[in-house]
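Thread: Amidohydrolase family protein, structure

OP (GT): Posting the sequence first so everyone is looking at the same thing. Length is 332 residues per the record. Can we get the C-alpha cells written out before standup tomorrow? I want them in the notebook alongside the other entries.
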Amino acid sequence: MTPLTVDVHAHVLLPEVDALVADLPGFAAAREVEARRNGPAALAVSGTMVRERVPRLTDVSVRLAAMDAQGVDVQLVSPSPSHYHYWADEETAEKVHRRANEATAAHCAQAPGRLFGLGLVPLQHPALAVRALEHALEQGLLGVEISSHAPGRELSDPAYEPFWSRAEETGALLFLHPFGCTLDERLDRWYLSNTVGQPTENAVALSHLIFSGVLDRHPELKLIAAHGGGYLPTHIGRSDHAWTARSDAGAGCAHLPSSYLKRLWFDSLVHDPHVLRALITAVGADRVLLGSDYPFDMGTEDPVGALRAARLPDTDFDAVRGGNAAALLRLT
C-alpha cells in the first residue's frame, strides 16, 4: 500500500466570516494597520493574487483537482489568517470563531478522508480560548490555528495557561501561523512584511513558548510551526549560548532551548533545499511535515517536488512526505 502524502499547510477562504465584520469600524481600522505595514505595492499585488485564487480557496472540487495534480492525498485545511480578526470585541470574536469553525468543518465534510480542518480561537480574549477550542473539536476539526501573538499579549502570557492545558488534555493540534509583523513600516516595501516578517514572527513566538517554560509545563502539546519555524531552528545555537551564558536567559525554562525543537513539529515550506536539510538536522526528520501554503503565491505548487529537491534519504523523504503527519493526525 502506497503511503499517504499529507499537506499540513493549506488554507480556505471563508467569505461568511468577513461578512460578519465588514461594516464594523474595528475592521476598517485593522485594514488601515495592515495597509501601513505592507505598503501599497504589496497590497495591490496581493489583492489581484487572492482574487485569482478564490475558486481554489473556496470550491472543494477545484481543491481536490489541484491536490490530485500535486500528488497530495490529504490536506489539513486552516482558515486564511486574514480571518483572525484579533481586533474584535468579545461578542464579535465569539461570532467570528464559531462561524469560522463551522464553515471550515462544512468545507472539509465535502471530502471526507481527504480534507481535515482546523478552526480559530480569539487569542485577544484568553478567557474565551478554551471554549473556542472545544467548539472547534465539537465540529469535528482536529484543532485550531493561532497567530504568533495577539494585541498586547505574547504566547508566553500566563492568561493562556488554561488554553495550553486544554489543548494538551484533548490532543488538539495547534498550527502556529503568523499574520502581520510588529516591525511595521520598516517592512513596508518589497514584500518584506512577509519575506522577513513571517519568519521573524515564527522565531519570536516559538522563543516565547520555549523560554517562558510553556513547553515544560505542557510537554504533550501538539504544535506545528508554519514556514519551518522561521529563523529559529537554523539559528538555535545563539539561543543555546544565551541560555548557558546568562542567568536571565536561562531563568524560565529547564532545558537547553534546542532540545524543545524535538517536541514540536515544523512544516517543510522553507523554499530552499539546503535550509530544509538544515531544518531536519536541527529538529529531526520525524518532526518535519509536508507544507505547501496552498494556494497562495508564497507557497509552492509542487510540494512533493520541493521535498524531493532536498535529496533526503528515502526513509526521511517518506516520513516528511506523509508518514509523520499520518501518525500525528491519526490517519489510517
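GT: Both are above now. Quick notes for whoever picks this up: The domain at 6-328 is CATH 3.20.20.140 (TIM Barrel). The chain has a mean pLDDT of 96.
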